[in-house]
């Protein structure tokens, strides 16, 4: 028994050594990004872009998820790589305002056999202290198949409001998310295990860091 | 609590379930159930169960995440803050609380064993 206790003490101490000053700790509060939690969205008509404020969820840098960006007030607010402070309705209206066209082709019935349509979008992510001005979505979220993201403006506002999942960007085609990835049909992640998605821990900043996600219509 | 972590870890590794429920809730739920059973049976601090559940937890963690130090820093802390509905708690704080509970719990249980002997 004494030996077991000794072994456990060593294991606990090892954990203690690892834990203080974690890499994925709290974000530096002194740094700031242009948007705030009270003013988390900006629609730029000149640039034809919608920019939203979000924060990194460290959990999905090590665990797989099918949610890219979700509103913190939605049911799935804690299930995405990026937890946003913008509601699906505001995000949808922003995309409409810049002249983007929604696909509106996804339903609960056809979701597993249909790829989302709508305008193709360019999604970039930036944050204070990032290595470069902005990163493409492909750089910050890792697709296990290395397929490039094809984020499209699906629309789906009616379902989004009805189900209140909070989804702004799903990682496979989705009848609820305002935008989603046309590279896969619904169920690719959860049902058929075709792919896994994780935040890129070698690129993304620590858990809780504020990031700015810019969505533009691809020309 | 350790058993709760074990169940939380296992359920979080099933993506379908992880995307639908708060897997961290396993921690307070199992803790409550174990406390209720222990109070009913009258033997709250069985050190063998305590030790066994910790060994199982470590094995499960290594099997699921390997020896990834980032996973070690992130996963238990995230499960803890989700389970206790404290989503804005920094991971550092959650990790500090967990380490305190782990050391305190082990010290308490094994001190009792040592005193009995």
Describe the structure.
- Chain A has 219 residues and is of the alpha+beta class.
- Chain A has four helices and twelve strands, in the order αββββαββαββαββββ.
- Chain A has helices at 2-18, 88-97, 137-140, 157-163; strands at 41-44, 49-56, 67-71, 80-84, 121-126, 135-136, 141-143, 151-153, 167-170, 179-181, 197-199, 210-217.
- In chain A, the strands form two sheets. In chain A, strands 1, 2, 3, 4, 5, 6, 8, 9, 10 and 12 form a ten-stranded mixed beta sheet that branches. In chain A, strands 7-11 form a two-stranded antiparallel ribbon.
- The model of chain A is unreliable at 15-32 (pLDDT under 50).
- Chain B has 117 residues and is mainly alpha-helical.
- In chain B, α1 (2-12) packs antiparallel against α3 (26-41), α1 runs parallel beside α4 and α5 (69-83) crosses α6 (91-116).
- The A-B interface holds A 1, 4-5, 8-9, 11-12, 15-16, 18-26, 58-59, 61-67, 76, 78-79, 189-191, 196, 201, 206-208 and B 12-13, 15-16, 18-19, 22, 51, 54, 58, 65, 68-75, 78, 82, 87, 90-92, 95-96, 99, 102-103, 106, 110, 113.
Would you spell out the secondary-structure blueprint of this structure?
The complex is a heterodimer of chains A (219) and B (117).
Chain A lengths: L1 H17 L22 E4 L4 E8 L10 E5 L8 E5 L3 H10 L23 E6 L8 E2 H4 E3 L7 E3 L3 H7 L3 E4 L8 E3 L15 E3 L10 E8 L2
Parallel strand pairs in A: 3-4, 9-10
Antiparallel strand pairs in A: 1-2, 2-4, 2-12, 3-9, 5-6, 5-12, 7-11, 8-10
Chain B lengths: L1 H11 L2 H4 L7 H16 L5 H19 L3 H15 L7 H26 L1
